[in-house]
Amino acid sequence: MSLLNSQSAPLIQVDNLSKSFGDHLALDKVSFSIEKGQPIALVGPNGAGKTTLFSLLCGYLLPSSGTITIAGLRAGDGNLFGRLAALPQDAQFDPRFSIAHQLTFYAQLQGLTRKNAQKEAHRTLELVGLADTLKAKPDELSHGMRKRVAIAQTLIGSPEIVMLDEATAGLDPINAREVRQLVASLSSEITFILSSHDLSELERLCSQVLYIEKGQLKQHQNLQSEEQQGFLTIRMRKAYDNFLPLMAGVADVQHIEQTQNNEFLITTGLVSPDSEPLDLQILKLCHQHKWQYSQLTNGKTLENRLF
Amino acid sequence: MLNIHRLSILTQFELKRIFNTKNGLIALMAFCAVWFILLTYVISSATELVFSDGFKLAASSLFGSLGLSALLKWPVAEFSIYWLVAVYSFPIFTFLVSSDQTCSDRARGTLRFITLRASRSEILIGRFLGQFLTLVSLILLTLLACVILATVRDNALFLPALKQAAVLFIELAIIILPFIALMSFFNSILSSAKMSIVAGILFYTIGALLIGFIQFQLDSGLFLNFIFPGTQISSVVSLDGLDFYHYLIPILQTIVLLFVADKLLKRASI
């Protein structure tokens, strides 16, 4: 059953998935489903099982128990070739061949003719801003550049699902931003699954979050859900002595708590339709007292939602 | 089901590894240098010696005692010596050259890029075919050099030499098949080329001792030797009175080894 003729079926369906390495249970009966659409974040502490889950979804590992269905097919099925792409953590290119040679080879495996495969290698490298490294060998590139080339290989052809494991780890801020922009610009065509420790990055890009801890799926949150309504997060540039009592005194503020240094989570009460919107009231208060804020966000930050 | 297009792309990429990379070309040059020395100083000199009037009788006696008297009747003398060198050296060479089919790609993570585009069976068979084509190209190169060597000595030997080269090409191509498959097998369970070579050496040494022990205990079990690629070499080296059975052994060994390697690679974590 293909994705095209199964619009109602989830893009990825995972049921009771477990994976053991000897006595170590890396994943413990994980179940979730992912629909086609906005990027999905995979979050969790080191050793939580994120990379194991990635590897299982890509078919690099076989599950100890449970099932994975991707676009109606089992993980690793030949019909997923070219439809599912991945940036596996720490995977390296063959040092003996040029980048162009290897990307062309991958594109040819996906069914492109040699000429089109060469064009595709050039196009994907252009997407990650590395078109001038076509003839370079992997060892001639920096770690960050190799990572971007690895991202380029995920974009060969027209994949439906792209899994990026720690895509921006090790990249400088400018390149990390470019990768984020690339993901955002392609997210209408491709369903991205991103794993990262940078929660603000995931918050900006993703609509859903899978939180894994000790091999178990602890939370599966929709960041755009209505649960987010009723909360505001404000981050101040510095600490102000009377900030908390004055803010708590705003009519529609039900509760305010400090979540981090200079970051506050505001819970709104029932807002009457006639009263001024709460965010405007807060901004006015800041303006009156000459408080400088750096960010005002609707809802909780991802960090506050998860921890 | 194997996809022919992907299989062909994988095989071509393997060929590029030797013919289109700096490391591959250096290895090729080393191979040519070794064979230049073998042809010039070993095969050419030994041919002159073995077929000289003074040594003919001793050679006949020596070859006869080894069951190789048929070789002395070959019209192109160079190929008799070439064959004796090639039939034993190419299996060892194959053993070394094909020791890294999938393991370094697996250790590096490159295989993770490839398995999203080709099945593990296609990778296994594509690489096996790539190694096979690489090795038969090298065999062909040495055979052509030997044809030139014989033709330089005597122009009239050109056609008989070509004919003999064709026969030996097929023989050598069949002999090396199970050695490549043996390395495909070790590559499917081990993580480095060095480990695959060590495993191969242990397979031939400890395996032979073990089978010898079993044969001694059971007073039978000669068939167990069929697990060793190259077991038929001693009986085919004379190339005299060969039947289909002699070709069946290496072909069956190849099929069985590839089948097992495929099963193991499919279950392997990459």
Automatic annotation (TrEMBL), chain A:
Superkingdom field: Bacteria
Keywords: ATP-binding, Nucleotide-binding, Transport
Molecular function terms from GO: ATP binding; ATP hydrolysis activity
InterPro entries for the chain: AAA+_ATPase (IPR003593), ABC_transporter-like_ATP-bd (IPR003439), ABC_transporter-like_CS (IPR017871), P-loop_NTPase (IPR027417)
Keyword Membrane in annotation: no
SUPFAM superfamilies hit by this protein: P-loop containing nucleoside triphosphate hydrolases
Keyword ATP-binding: yes
Domain ABC transporter: 12-239
Family, per entry: Belongs to the ABC transporter superfamily.
Protein name, entry field: ABC transporter ATP-binding protein
TrEMBL record, chain B:
Keywords associated with the record: Membrane, Transmembrane, Transmembrane helix
Keyword Oxidoreductase annotated: no
Chain segments annotated as transmembrane: 24-43, 80-98, 128-152, 164-185, 197-216, 244-261
Transport is among the record's keywords: no
Listed name of the protein: ABC transporter permease subunit
Natural source organism: Colwellia hornerae
